Amino acid sequence: MADLKKLNVLMCGTGEYTTGWTGSGASTSDKKIGVVALTLFDLRRLDKVDHLAMVGVNGKKFPEIRQHLEKNIAGVYKDMDVSFEEFPKNGLVDADAYKVAINQMSAGEAVIIFTPDSTHFPIALYAIERGLHVLLTKPATQLLAHHNTLIEAAKKHNVVCFVEHHKRFDPVYSDARAKAATLGEFNFFNAWMSQPKSQLETFRAWAGKDSDISYYLSSHHIDICCWILEGIAVPTRVVASAATGIATSEPYNCVPQTEDTITLLVDWQSVKSQKHKGTAVYTASWTAPLKAGIHSGQHWYYMAEKGDINVDQAHRGYDLTYDDSGKSWVNPFYMKYSPSESGHFDGQRGYGYISIEKFIDAVRSVNANLTQPSDYDKQALPTIANTVLTTAILNAGRISLDEKRPVGIKREGDLWILE
Ligand SMILES: NC(=O)c1ccc[n+]([C@@H]2O[C@H](COP(=O)([O-])OP(=O)(O)OC[C@H]3O[C@@H](n4cnc5c(N)ncnc54)[C@H](O)[C@@H]3O)[C@@H](O)[C@H]2O)c1
């Protein structure tokens, strides 16, 4: 890949996932120096990317963001250039600055979107319609109709559009998928994902208003389940239930419609055998206990005709104890922030990094005419086309909660629709 043209990339969103800088300072989560910008700075060092730009809404944040990146990335790893072009410029505040930034780009360049859930669709569509390749964070869109529109648009403009489902690149998850393929008909899947109540402070701006905890966290394991079940079963019906009362009470006082814990109960139909049906339960919570030694609780269980699989991604058999903060379980398989023996960034094998690198490699390969965007749909990668059922289930879950009814999922011609 070394002689392929370097790629120019625009990062949309300047928050926790992109830079590790949140409105209230450096993130206190497991992403203190972010994922996207750090990975792209390293890929620039390794000659895969070239010009980098970043767009947010509030241009006044950039001096602090630059200081944070200088100190914690350039000041820690050798040979790291943390420069980037900013939008909006001159400290302006502009929610449409992404249009200005995108209008200055050339077809074939790339946009990586980590912005609030409700903004994913308009920003991604704007970029795709201008011939730009897009990596979009989860949940790709909140509505199935929007997801279908992005599939169509990416096809029409012949661009790569991936959803950043990084768990697919966790060696445990991808191995588990291969093992699941040997276990016959699907029977039962149960996933739990949680974050501590303190996240209700971090997410105050949008929690319960703009999105919910199912979209935010269950999107991960719904995607993994859909990916495992490709060619095995399809979802047919979703019923949702929510626990409430903690987020809307002291000291969090979230808006009245905020749920604490959302469970989606999903019926799956085997694609090969009419009599085999499966059940999946996807639960997500942002009211888990504080001080549990983990940032995200995450485990799942898969049972099929000939065996089962258990994964606990929160406890990797690696824990630390500090006198002041107690025990914590850490996961360097996701982002490894400790430098190499030569003093360089050393996290190239982390699945948070790999997920972004795979997108950059695919785009450079397409730009060099070595591959077509549609090739990646056949490779079980999280392309926009391959992730449509994840959005179908999440959207059906939201409708089920709002309208207090089961929601059907079915295929009509080439389209997945909700009933
Ligand atoms: N933080 C994580 O651990 C994590 C992990 C995976 C995925 N995500 C996803 O990332 C997205 C949010 O990213 P975050 O966690 O960095 O959030 P954040 O709240 O820290 O940052 C959001 C950023 O989006 C920007 N933004 C908002 N509207 C915009 C617009 N119209 N144009 C350009 N920028 C805009 C804001 O300026 C801000 O910089 C969510 O969809 C979330 O599901 C986050």
TrEMBL record:
- Regions annotated as coiled coil: none
An example molecular function term from Gene Ontology annotations: nucleotide binding
Report the domain of life of the source organism.
Eukaryota
Q: Name one GO biological process term.
A: NADPH regeneration
GO CC, alphabetical: cytoplasm
**InterPro entries linked:** Gfo/Idh/MocA-like_OxRdtase_N, NAD(P)-bd_dom_sf
Gene3D superfamilies hit by this protein: Dihydrodipicolinate Reductase, domain 2, NAD(P)-binding Rossmann-like Domain
Q: Where is the Gfo/Idh/MocA-like oxidoreductase N-terminal domain?
A: 53-165
Record SUPFAM superfamilies? Glyceraldehyde-3-phosphate dehydrogenase-like, C-terminal domain, NAD(P)-binding Rossmann-fold domains
Give the matching PANTHER family: BINDING ROSSMANN FOLD OXIDOREDUCTASE, PUTATIVE (AFU_ORTHOLOGUE AFUA_3G11930)-RELATED, NAD(P)-BINDING ROSSMANN-FOLD SUPERFAMILY PROTEIN-RELATED
Q: What is this protein called?
A: NAD(P)-binding protein
Tell me the organism. Pholiota conissans
